[in-house]
Amino acid sequence: MSAIDDLPPLAQVVRAHNLAPTKALGQNFLFDLNLTAKIARSAGDLTGQDVLEIGPGPGGLTRALLAGGARRVVAVERDRRCLPALAEIAARYPGRLEVIEGDALTFDPGPHFDTPPKIIANLPYNIGTELLVGWLTPAQWPPWWHSLTLMFQREVAERIVARTGTRAYGRLSVLAGWRAESAILFDIPPQAFVPPPKVMSAVIRLEPRPAPDNVSLKALERITGAAFGQRRKMLRRSLAPLGGEALLDRAGIAPTKRAEDIDIPGFLALARASETP
Question: Which residue in 146, 168, 191, 257 has its CB near the most CB atoms, within 10 A?
Fold first, then answer.
């Protein structure tokens, strides 16, 4: 008996299906079902909610989401070796788990959700940031998702929530802060995983802002790319190819400032100014 349902302990499931984690897929399994239940709870009340999970592996978090009351979980798994283990969970929770074999980077959520789902996942380290950027930059806003509760390497989590003037503050901080409110909820040590990664992990929650300032994403990416690409230089130097001091003057920003000194409204002003003749 496990801590959350009557399915076998996760270590037993992994042995039964010979599911050795694969480094190429960024797999690190969490065997502690009490810990996966904590992650599920951190996403808020799941009662009646649809959930998208990326990379469920043998299904530890999947079980926690279903046991926690999720109406339905859509789990996208690239590793077909995990499908039999996930099928056992689907049988235990009939009609509530849909498993999609495929690549999360090309997954189209449209056909699978009638209402915005909560995205809750222990993301594979090798694609986590790319997935997050995609979720933060859909064609339409508000986004198709309700909230994001995600596990990252602690270093990446710090970059997402970083504030102006800190070492971690960068392009990802600006993008995340523009589109969402975010916070690190708690850490997960390496020894909680099999195999243990070399770094600390952290669970982060992001809530979409209802109406972020309307600026061009391409313009913002150009500005932040140039500014943080030479973050030790004054902006009059790093932004010289994009207009330099004239651009900074239109945005009302001192040319001696550096990228880490500019808050998110400042970067949005620069993005707007870069598209003004």
Answer: 146
How sure is the predictor about 25, in pLDDT bands with cuts at 50, 70 and 90?
Answer: confident
Host H or E run for residue 234: none
- Contact at 8 Å (CB) between 91 and 98? no
pTM: predicted TM-score of the whole model, two decimal places: 0.95
Q: Which domains does the chain show, CATH number per domain?
A: 10-208 (3.40.50.150), 217-274 (1.10.8.100)
Q: Are 220 and 175 in contact (CB under 8 A)?
A: yes
Long-range CB contacts (< 8 A, 24+ apart) of 166-174?
166/260, 167/260, 169/260, 170/224, 170/228, 170/231, 170/259, 171/221, 171/224, 171/225, 171/228, 172/129, 172/132, 172/133, 174/220, 174/224, 174/264, 174/267
Q: What is the pLDDT of residues 108-126, one digit of tens each?
A: 999 999 999 999 999 988 8
φ, ψ of residue 236 to 5 degrees: the values are: -65, -25
